[in-house]
Amino acid sequence: MSNNDPANDHRKPTHSHGGSRTCLRQLASRTGLFASLALAVTVACTAPANDAAGTGEAGSDPAATTQPIEADHFVPSTPENVAWGWFPIDKVPVLRMQSGETVRVNTLTSAGAGQDENPVAFLTGLAIPREEIHQDVLDFWASRDGRLRDRQGSHIITGPIHVEGAEPGDVLAIEILSVETRANWGINSTGARSGVFSTSYPGFREGDPALDIPPESGRHVIHTGMADGVEVAFLADDIHVPLEPFMGILAVAPDPVMGQPGVSAPGVQGSTPPGAFGGNLDVKHLKTGTTVYLPVFHPGGLFYVGDPHGAQGDGEVSGTAIEQSLTGTFRLSVHKDRSIDAPMAENDEHYILMGIDIDLDRATRHAVRAVVDFLVEEKGLTPAKALSLASIAVDFRINEVVDITQVVSGFIPKSVFLR
Fold it and tell me: Any idea which of 23-32, 37-46, 358-367, 376-385 has the lowest mean pLDDT?
C-alpha cells in the first residue's frame, strides 16, 4: 500500500495531540503491566502536525491548515478493504506490517453507505451536496448486494491488518496517534423507540411510554466545521458541540463461541456487541493520545477499525453518535511478555480498565474487579486497600448501554501515585 492517501477528502485540521514528546511522557508514567506492554513502543512516535487551525465562520468548511501525520502505510476504505457488520477471521489481510510501524486507515460511516436507497439520492435528499459524498461511499454501496448474506450488523469496518509476529496469547498495543474528520457532516438518528427507549432494551417495562418523536424528524444531519479556532458540530445556531473524534470499533479478529453475544453461527461474530476482542466498545475516551491493549486470538492479530464518530456522550443513549467518516493513524505493536483477557487502555492521565457484560450491574462488577486486580498486581496494594482506593479515587463511567453487551470503565488517576 502507498503511504499517502488521496487528497480528495474534505480534510480538517488533525486532532494529533500525540507525537514524540507525548509518547515519551506516557512511557515515563507507565509502571508494571503497562510499562512492560510499552517496551516495544520506545521508538520515536510520529511527530505531531502543526496546530495551526484558525477561526472560521460558523457552519463554514475552511481548508485544512495542517498536514496529516505521515505513516508507514495507508489503507483506504475501498470495497475490498472493508467488512460489513461482522469480523471475518479468515479474510485475506488488507495489509501486512511490522510490529512498531504506523498506518493511516480510512473508515466509512454506515450512515449514508449502508441504507437501501442509493447514497446520492439518500444524502442529497438530506441536503448534503453531491460533491461532499465520497467515492468510497458510492463504491461500497455498489458492492452491498454481495454482502447481505453475511451481514450481522450495520458497521462498515476496515481490515484486517496483519501485524507480523503476533500470536495467540500476545497483546496488541494500538497507539492512537491522530483521528481526523474526512467530511464536514455526520448523521445522528433518534426515534420514539430508539436506544434506551427500545422495547427490546433490558430495562423496558410494559407500559413505558415512547418519546414524542415522529419518524420524519428522527434523522439529524449535523454539519461540522471551525468556530473560534475549535472544530465543532453545529447542532443549532446557538448550540456548538466540540468534536472529539474517535473510532467506536477497535478490534482484533475474535474467537467466536456459540452462545456468546453476537455469535450467530460457528466462526461468525457480529459487529454490534463488544467483547474480549474489543470491537464496538464505543468508549469515547479512546481518542488521540490513548493506547488501547487487546488480547490476540489469531496469528497476526488481524486488526479491524471502524464505526467512526465525530462526537458522542457516554452512554450513546439514542443508539448513535455523530456518525461521521474519519481517518485514524495508529502505531501497532506486539507484546509477548504479558497476556490480558479483556480490553484495557491508558492515556496521560488515567489507566482505563473495562468491564463488559449484557447486564450493566455485572459489567460494573467486572470493571471494579479489573481495577482491584490491577492495583494489587501492578501497584502492590492489598485487595482491601485496592478496593478502598477504587471507591474513593476511581471514576466508573458507563461508556455505552445500547449494543447488547454494555461497557463500564474504571478510570484510575495516575496523579495519585507518587512513584
Answer: 23-32
Give DSSP secondary structure letters for 398-414: EEESSSSSEEEEEEEEG
From residue 354, alpha-carbon distances to 28, 45, 274, 296, 335 in Å are 23, 26, 11, 17, 20
Measure the CA–CA gap between 84 and 271, rounded to whole angstroms: 8
DSSP single-letter state for residue 210: P
| CB atoms closer than 10 angstroms to residue 130 | 9
Q: CA 180, CA 66: separation in Å to the nearest integer? A: 11
Collapsed DSSP state (helix, strand, coil) of residue 182:
coil
pLDDT value of position 202: 84
Whether 173 and 250 have beta carbons less than 8 Å apart is answered as: no
CA distance linking residue 273 with residue 404, whole number of Å: 5
For residues 20 and 44, the answer to whether their CB atoms sit within 8 Å is yes
In which band, very low, low, confident or very high, does the pLDDT at 34 lie, cut at 50, 70 and 90? low
CATH no. for residue 301?
2.60.120.580
The gap between the terminal CA atoms of the chain, to the nearest Å, is 43
As for how many domains the chain has, the answer is: 1
User: Looking at the chain, how many residues does it have?
Assistant: 419
Q: Looking at residue 78, what is its pLDDT?
A: 97
Cα(49)–Cα(65) distance, integer angstroms: 10
**Cell numbers 468534536 correspond to what residue?**
243
**Do 202 and 261 form a contact (C-beta atoms < 8 A)?**
no
Among 32-41, 62-71, 214-223, the range of highest mean pLDDT: 214-223
Q: What is the CA radius of gyration of the chain?
A: 21
Whether 166 maps to a domain, the answer reads yes
Q: Is residue 120 part of a domain?
A: yes
Please choose, from the candidates 84, 306, 25, 34, the residue with its C-alpha nearest in 3D space to the C-alpha of residue 179. 306
Q: Indicate whether 374 belongs to any domain.
A: no
| pTM, to two decimals | 0.86
In a domain, 411, yes or no: no
pLDDT tens for residues 339-361?
999 999 999 999 999 999 999 99
| Cα 352 from chain centroid (whole Å) | 15
Domain containing 322 equals: 20-49+66-346
